[in-house]
Design brief:
14 helices, Alkaline Phosphatase, subunit A, 10-stranded mixed sheet, 2 domains, 16% strand
Length: 478
């Protein structure tokens, strides 16, 4: 009886969710009815197959914000003293206090301290209030726990701080530019053997990135439409030649005599060999429509969420996750990304639109996973090159260090800020010059908490995250 009630609750939740999506996407009459019936049928079949398959499926989704997100304007102090410090530090790029929506805290951040989020992040704030999202405070690249005095002395610091390429690489791999594997890919090395199709263990919807590269795992890249194929090979007579197709295939898969050509041909051959498996699984997994929510674009024309590249990346990731049973997957790591966060200028014009895009895409993805009955199995987390400096340079801000990040999903212990929120002010022990904040939580600790949720042992984590022994256990946000 309990199992039946749980299944019925999932079915009702799915029905309600699909009705909401249908309304948001503008489907009416027969179209909305067909959408609901078709989607419910697919979800019911999926949930029936998934319920007792014993796989214990889990997926980790990295949402990477290229350029260095200014999270100081995402989580803002709203108590009188805290906001006064914030406004003085940020000057021309401070958000108006009237536009900040307060958020609750389950653990105190200090006497009288209160925080809020801007209206542009309203969908993300709603997930936070619902307990499906958590904030991890002041995360950054560290070699070991570091004090301000040690920073000033230059002792034991990450290589090439404040450099885009190096800090992006360090976030994704724990090593500066030139790293050959990332911690997502190294997780994939350990998970691959448990999957029926090891090639689908680490999947990128946003192109090549070191995050998903392992020592034995190679990222599998998909487009927003699904598996990528060499279209010319489908034609019976490409270029009006009966032999061109075979010649093209030989050319693309010829390993040659050099390492670069050999690796290229290996990846092309792998793509051709695996295309049918992925395409077949996706053919029976309909996409849950992205809502047509309006998104402002600063001084440019407005757009809608269903046209947004990040939301489309998350849509295909969601479809692949929903196809996990058909593909025989138990653990997967994904990556999506969005650019535009290097806000040296015109920040108040363009940053709110980026906030809307990220919050709207996360909200859509979370709803989709909830409708599919997989919310507890999927965790999304944000990452970025670095935080920004508190100090305004006139209309923007320069490269910083520590930044606040979001973790979202049914398994997340949401509605709380994990780690200590620093003062948004100059001259503190957290501020190391020009408003750059010294991280209180390392990327290594952040990754370790996510890895433990994925089922990695302490010895596994030591392999995936070199230098982990330098840190205490990170915050248990999941």
């Amino acid at each position: 009886m309990n199992s039946f009630n749980a299944s019925r609750r999932k079915f009702v939740a799915a029905a309600a969710g699909i009705s909401t999506i249908a309304a948001r996407t503008g489907a009416t009459g027969g179209n909305a009815f067909a959408l609901s019936l078709g989607s419910l049928g697919a979800l019911a079949a999926h949930n029936s197959a998934h319920a007792d398959d014993g796989t214990g499926y889990k997926a980790l989704v990295c949402l990477y914000m290229h350029g260095g997100n200014d999270s100081h304007n995402w989580v803002v102090p709203v108590d009188a003293d805290g906001y006064a410090e914030y406004a003085a530090a940020r000057s021309s790029i401070a958000l108006a206090r009237s536009g900040l929506q307060p958020i609750g805290l389950k653990t105190s951040q200090g006497s009288g301290r209160e925080f809020g989020m801007p209206s542009a992040l309203a969908p993300l704030r709603s997930l936070y209030d619902a307990g499906e999202a958590a904030i991890v405070a002041n995360v950054g690249t560290l070699v070991r726990p570091t004090t301000k005095a040690q920073f000033v002395a230059g002792a034991g610091l990450p290589a090439k701080l404040f450099s885009h390429n190096d800090q992006m690489s360090t976030w994704q791999s724990l090593s500066p530019e030139g790293a050959r594997s990332g911690w997502g890919g190294r997780m994939g090395d350990l998970f691959a053997s448990g999957n029926a199709h090891p090639v689908f263990t680490a999947i990128s919807a946003s192109g090549n990135a070191v995050f998903l590269a392992g020592n034995s795992t190679t990222p599998y890249e998909v487009s927003v439409d699904g598996a990528v194929k060499v279209k010319s090979l489908d034609y019976k007579a490409p270029m009006a030649s009966m032999t061109a197709g075979a010649s093209l295939r030989r050319l693309l898969t010829d390993p040659g005599s050099g390492r670069i050509q050999a690796e290229y041909s290996r990846i092309v051959q792998r793509s051709m060999d695996t295309y049918s498996s992925m395409a077949s699984a996706l053919a029976s997994t309909p996409a849950i429509p992205i809502p047509r929510t309006a998104i402002s674009a600063g001084s440019g024309p407005a757009s809608t969420l269903d046209q947004d590249g990040l939301a489309q990346q998350l849509q295909i990731v969601g479809r692949i996750i929903m196809a996990q049973s058909a593909l025989g997957m138990r653990r997967q790591v994904f990556m999506v990304s969005i650019g535009g966060f290097d806000t040296h200028a015109n920040q108040l014009r363009y940053h709110p639109a980026l906030m809307q895009r990220v919050a709207g895409a996360i909200d859509y993805f979370t709803r989709a996973m909830r409708m599919a009955g997989l919310s507890d199995n999927v965790t999304l987390f944000t990452a970025s090159d670095f935080g920004r400096a508190l100090r305004s340079n006139g209309s923007g801000c320069d490269h910083g260090w520590g930044s606040h990040h979001f973790v979202v999903g049914g398994a997340v212990k949401g509605g709380n800020i994990y780690g200590r929120m620093p003062q948004t002010a100059f001259g503190t022990e957290d501020e190391v010059g020009s408003g750059r904040l010294l991280p209180g939580i390392s990327v290594t600790q952040y990754a370790a908490t996510l890895g433990r949720w994925m089922g990695l042992s302490s010895s596994d984590l030591a392999t995936v995250l070199p230098g982990l022994e330098n840190f205490a256990a990170g915050p248990a946000f999941i």
